[in-house]
Design a protein that fits this description.
Length: 522
């Protein structure tokens, strides 16, 4: 046997199994949890394990257990105690090896531990600290439901440009996690962020980005702006036909109609359709087709009539102002700022149209930077998408690609990433899920959704179905191409996290500690 000298710390002992499905017996005076991290020591190295399932064990046969329980139930015997009960009945745990730790080196586990190896709690000194480049703080290392004082930081530029998926059931902390990430990024200069905010929850309020010490780096565009912030107004001349992809579904004839108007009237094509301007004589459409297009544009853009003149007074779109809005937003993002677009008062089609316009401009700008050889001089750009299946879902993409699916497939080449937030990852095509190279998985109760996550994860999560289902609010599992194994984390409660960093007066530009399980780019 091994580990006798640390018997007071022992939580269990390995008694069998196979690689990936190791069986351990729990010590009677301790309690193991799903997701708990354990260490087994050998003379050469330490092996990091994680509990993924628990079950009962007993030296008594099932027949005897049923007999004894029946006597207790039916005959109401007061005492059913065993001699040495902790040796007669006990808890067994299935554990899997996550990594081997040797000095400052961490490697993927490829060997079995010694038979009867003792298992103990993971300690902070078991793990080596490093500083990843451009650290993106997510939370602290978690062992079961216990939080360790070990911050988890991902390499920011690479993680963001290779896309992040945040799946979770309602109420498990998606918005809290996103606020923590945005608060962290507001203290850094390596990333600019476009946040499409359908619930107006990221900027306003006592526990929001408006209270950040670097709030000059955060802009909030809204139809009802906060003091000192700009009004969200976009000139209709900035709209192009492709911006409606994902927002509206056009028939073939309707697509041909709007293409013809755009070809003739250029940036004035919206006004031309609304006013029923005539096309060239060789271009002929049924009046019903043009009327349907006109009606759908009027409804989507929020156009009303005053004295027979079209107006957009109650809409984010305008025929008279807002010509520089998109350019201004792009300029701030390319300076490394965070721009929050409040779309909470808009219809779904309006929200997607606005997001599509900003995303298209951002994608085109970063493509130009790459063509000019100036891409690495710019901060990486990130688009935060709430309710992501609305633009990345299978049903939407069956009607054709849109700018968001294009960025999901090609954005990393241009240092442009997406953070997709959803309750229903199963609605997103598997190819796009696979392109989300980092997944911060919060509690997900529905099995089809867990299965979609597991099948597209960067690491093997086939044993983690129960662990994902049992994640409490603020608990997560990070699976990423930039980590050597799936890392359990505890995400800080945002008001407490914001208060603690604000008290420091000057936010740190680099985090001095991070878990060595993070890969760094050479």
């Amino acid at each position: 046997m091994t580990g006798k000298k640390n018997n007071t710390q022992t939580k269990g002992i390995i008694i069998g199994g196979k690689f990936g499905e190791i069986l351990a017996r729990q010590k009677s005076t301790t309690t193991l949890e799903i997701g708990e991290l354990l260490i087994a020591e050998t003379p050469e190295q330490r092996i990091l394990f994680q509990v993924y399932d628990l079950l009962f064990g007993s030296q008594l046969s099932q027949q005897n257990l049923e007999l004894i329980s029946g006597m207790n139930l039916e005959e109401h015997q007061a005492s059913m105690e065993f001699l040495e009960p902790h040796e007669r009945t006990y808890t067994l745990a299935f554990i899997k090896a996550l990594a081997t730790l040797k000095g400052r080196t961490i490697r993927t586990a490829k060997t079995l531990p010694a038979f009867f190896s003792h298992l103990r709690d993971v300690q902070e000194e078991d793990l080596v600290f490093t500083t990843p480049p451009n650290p993106l703080f997510v939370g602290n290392l978690r062992s079961g439901s216990k939080q360790l004082d070990i911050p988890i930081n991902l390499p920011g530029r690479e993680t963001l440009t290779h896309h992040i998926l945040i799946p979770a059931t309602t109420g498990r902390g998606k918005s809290n996690l996103m606020k923590v990430i945005l608060w962290n990024l507001a203290s850094e200069n390596y990333a600019g962020v476009l946040v499409l905010d359908p619930h107006d929850e990221y900027y306003r309020g006592s526990h929001a980005l408006s209270n950040h010490p670097n709030k000059n780096k955060i802009a909030h565009y809204s139809p009802n702006p906060s003091p000192g912030q700009p009004t969200l107004t976009i000139h209709t001349s900035l709209i192009r036909p492709e911006h409606f992809d994902g927002a509206l579904s056009w028939s073939t004839a309707q697509k041909e109609c709007i293409t013809a108007y755009y070809k003739k009237f250029k940036e004035h094509w919206i006004e031309a359709i609304i006013k029923a301007e005539e096309l060239d004589q060789q271009v002929v459409f049924r009046e019903e087709t043009a009327a349907v297009v006109r009606r759908r544009l009027i409804n989507t853009l929020g156009i009303t009539y005053k004295n027979n003149t079209p107006t957009t007074s109650a809409s984010p779109f305008s025929f008279h102002s807002g010509t520089t809005t998109i350019r201004d937003v792009l300029s701030r993002i390319e300076e490394g700022s965070i721009v929050v677009i409040d779309t909470s008062s808009f219809s779904g089609a309006q929200e997607i149209l606005i997001g599509s316009m900003f995303a298209s401009a951002l994608f085109a700008s970063y493509k130009r930077h790459k063509a000019r050889g100036a891409l690495e001089e710019k901060p990486v750009a990130v688009i935060v998408l709430e309710e992501a299946p609305r633009v990345l879902g299978k049903e939407v993409l069956e009607q054709g690609p849109n700018i968001f699916s294009t960025i999901a497939r090609e954005g990393r080449k241009f240092n442009l990433g997406i953070v997709a937030i959803t309750q229903l990852p199963s609605l997103i095509p598997r190819q796009i899920l696979a392109n989300m190279n980092t997944k911060i998985i919060l509690g997900t109760e529905m099995k089809p959704e867990r299965q979609a996550i597991i099948e597209s994860a960067a690491q093997d999560l086939s044993k983690d179905d129960r662990a994902i289902a049992s994640l409490d609010k603020g608990e997560a599992i990070i699976t990423s191409n930039f980590t050597k194994f799936a890392i359990p984390v505890a995400i800080p409660y945002f008001p407490h996290y914001a208060a603690s960093t604000t008290q420091q007066h000057a936010p740190a530009k680099s985090v001095k500690k991070a878990f060595a399980g993070i890969k760094t780019q050479q």
